[in-house]
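pls ignore typos typing on phone
zinc ion + seq
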Amino acid sequence: MADFALLGEGLALDLANTLVREHGAAVDLLARRGAAAAWCAAHADALPGGRVPAAGLAALRDAVHETLDAAARRRRPDAAALALVDASAAAVRPKLRATPHGPVVAWTGPRAGGARALGAIARDAQAVLADPHAEVRACANPDCVLLFVARDGRRRFCTTAICSNRVRQARHRARHRAGTSA
Ligand SMILES: [Zn+2]
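k done
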């Protein structure tokens, strides 16, 4: 399976986080062959069925990334990106269905072009922004571009294990350099 920065942040954040930075260069993890299908397979439990065209997933990813990145950096988002997220969300409707194991959400709307899956992702992006207890943030590691939802106001890094350690080590090196040059 393709290597994703899978953070379990939910559909919208996980999709936005397929735009990463590796060794200082921007990398599109969805551009790799088979990556779109692999991403959908990794989120199969949350995505309505049906094939999602790679181009459609990448286009919505760009729009969701622009939307959530603008939220994290408190800047004005691109209007076309918002329009695409809204249109994708509006194409589908969640509907509660009873099962012997409790209610589940079923998605109604067109199947063509992976519209149901794209709609579920777009609605997740809207839900994240609508949640007053969820704040979209960008990782505090300046070399990292990943976004996450801080439900705990103190969270500053995408993954503490990787990014906060890197920042700590960088600070340590900077202090060390400052100490030797003084
Ligand atoms: Zn990070």
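Residues 90 and 119 are 7 Å apart (CA to CA). The chain has a mean pLDDT of 90. more later
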